[in-house]
Amino acid sequence: MRAAVCHGARDIRIENVPRPRPAPGEVLIRVHANGICGTDASEFAGPQMYPLHARHGLTGHEGPLIPGHEFAGRIAEIGDGVEGFTVGEPVVTGAALWCGVCPQCRAGRTSICALYATVGLHRDGGLAEFVRVPAHIVFSAAPYGLSDDAAVLTQPMAIAVHALRRGRPRSGEDVLVIGAGGIGAFLTFALARSGARVVAADISEDRLAVARRLGAINTVRAGDALGLTAALGQTGFAPAIVFEVSGTDAGFAAAITAVAAGGRIVTVGIAKHAIAIDARRVTTKELELVGTNALIGREDVPEAARLLALDPAAWQDVAPVAIPLERLVEDGIVPMTEGRAKHIKLLVDPWTKSSRPTEMTTA
Ligand SMILES: [Zn+2]
Ligand SMILES: [Zn+2]
User: Fold this and answer.
1) Which residues, chain by chain, have CB under 5 Å from ion ligand 1?
2) Quick one: which ligand is closest to 115's CA?
3) Separation of 327 CA from ligand 2 center, angstroms?
4) Average pLDDT over residues 40-45
């Protein structure tokens, strides 16, 4: 089969590799498409998570790796001992793996498992024609009526669903999302659908236009704490919760300034460096700082698929294009590493020969 294989920093090759066979307890998925995100870009620039040179403690993978953790497709083969799937059935997955025996796993908090791993980061993933996946992390997409392209958005939406749960928004509450690209767009939609009054902030007017389409009641174009606070002050918006998705110093400073006293900040974006914060204001405003990591498959994936299906046409502007595997590096990952990606989400279709428009609605 054709697959993108990462051999090291800035070294992804499109190769012919043997089609995998599902091990007992696994299914083989024919990949419809695979979305790429900032994690793929930063691993391309310098692999931190890919176990290229040392065996991974949970997955056992060591060596060149097929990336891709945002995929959906159809069941192609069913491994020994797997029940409940039929060949050709559309499926989605959060791609999340956990050990099941550490204290966090036993408490149900598998997203912070000591050995937490992801298909496509710690074992071969979906930037290929086929991917094998443990069946217990695969969910049928049939009940949700998603198009195959829309189903590909389930994993990033599940990340947003998990962040939302960590933030505990109440219906009618004022919520600010800082950073409307990537997960911020999915979060805006999920929050709006949960009944929150969402304002989205970003430096890009294009992303803010998408945020309004996804349910933001207002948007603020700002890149620093001063600009954001001034703009919010004019609208009288005092968010009880701020989701900081940008992962930047400016975003974090803006979150601490903008959040109402007694409120909470959910840190969604992963900064590239340690961020210094004004802890005095966390103290005097009695703020809560809440982390969120990855997702919990059985809780977040079905909810993500349900949310996506509420307004399938909304995703057309988020992910308008699917590119062929051969264009992955030049048209997908490199523009992302250079901060000039055209769309919030880009899909990669391992079966297409040329770029195609996506189809988010079913006929
Ligand atoms: Zn991702
Ligand atoms: Zn664990």
Assistant:
1) 37, 39, 70
2) 2
3) 37
4) 97
Report the number of distinct structural domains present in the chain: 2
Distance in Å, CA 281 to ligand 1 centroid:
32
Q: Which residue has the tokens 């497709």?
A: 73
**Are residues 134 and 217 both part of a single domain?**
no
Give the pLDDT score at 223: 77
CA 363/CA 358 separation, integer angstroms: 13
List pLDDT tens digits, range 84-98: 999 999 999 999 999
Task: Phi first, then psi: give them for residue 43, nearest 5 degrees.
Answer: -70, -35
Tens of pLDDT, residue by residue over 128-153, are: 999 999 999 999 999 999 999 999 99
Q: What's the rounded Cα separation, in Å, for the pair 151 and 155?
A: 9
Cα(247) to ligand 1 centroid in Å equals 15
Ligand 1 centroid from CA 156, angstroms: 6
Choose the most confident range, by mean pLDDT, from 22-31, 227-236, 335-344.
22-31
Q: Is the pTM of this model over 0.70?
A: yes
Its domain, for residue 336, covers 2-153+319-357
Q: Ligand 2 mean position to 125 CA, how many Å?
A: 21
Torsion of CA 331, 323, 180, 211, to 10 degrees: 140
pLDDT surpasses 80 at 157: yes
